[in-house]
Amino acid sequence: MNPIDTRQILNWDQVKVHLQPNLCIECQLVPQQPLQCYRCQKLLCQTCHGDLKQKSRGPKIFCQKCKALNYFNPANNAIYQSYRDMVIGCVNRRYGCKVTLDYKKYQKHVEECDFQRIPCPSPGCFVTTLKRAKGDHLSVCEYVIETCQYCNKQFNRKSMTYHQEKCNGKDAQQIDLASLKSDFLRLRSKLDAAISQFEQSTEITMLEQKVIKQQLEIQQLKNNINQ
Predict the structure, then answer these.
(1) DSSP secondary-structure letter at 140?
(2) What is the pLDDT of residues 18-57, one digit of tens each?
């Protein structure tokens, strides 16, 4: 976790008396999850602790206050109490974030902040953009990986146009498309013939019904005359 720059503390003048003794003894910033020297009780931030531990190559770390190798353990509650009155501006304030937070909520916000700058996830692209603008960048990024619709191979967007012009899968799909069109026209022809036959069959049935009806009317007339 990166420490908090004192310039981000909007009420620094009001809280500096309590905070200054509890800054990281290396970088003089406000540590998150501070570590405390077991002997002199001075603090290290996680970043400086990691750097010093790498240099010492052992469990003990050189303390600037004690001038000796000591163990550093998680800070006690009194340290956290000294941080509670801080009003902190987001580290992404220069990019447009106007959120202010207390110490307890600061880290969670920074991890989720839409104004943080993030690298493009596309291989080969070195652009960094605001998290909130990631979608806009990816919509135009030449290094976004896409799948060829003809052969299912993957290329970045920059190479895809050239690939599709030469892709063998494209010719195969065009052959398949021509075959499908031919099958469609053949089936459509059969369908039109069937519809025509059905219509003719319907007309014949209607004529037959008319003839039967006229025969019945003629027979009825004959019966009436004979009476």
Answers:
(1) T
(2) 899 999 999 999 999 999 998 899 999 999 988 888 887 7
- 173: number of Cβ within 10 Å: 14
pTM tops 0.70: no
Place of tokens 């049935």: 205
Residue type, 6: T
Distance CA 165, CA 151 (A): 12
Residue type, 14: Q
Question: What are the φ/ψ torsions at residue 27 (nearest 5 degrees)?
Answer: -100, -10
Contact status, residue 65 vs residue 52, Cβ threshold 8 Å:
no
Q: Are 17 and 54 in contact (CB under 8 A)?
A: no
> Which two three-digit tokens encode residue 95?
């990019």
Q: For residue 68, what is the enclosing H or E element? A: strand 68-70
* CA dihedral (215, 216, 219, 220) positive or negative: negative
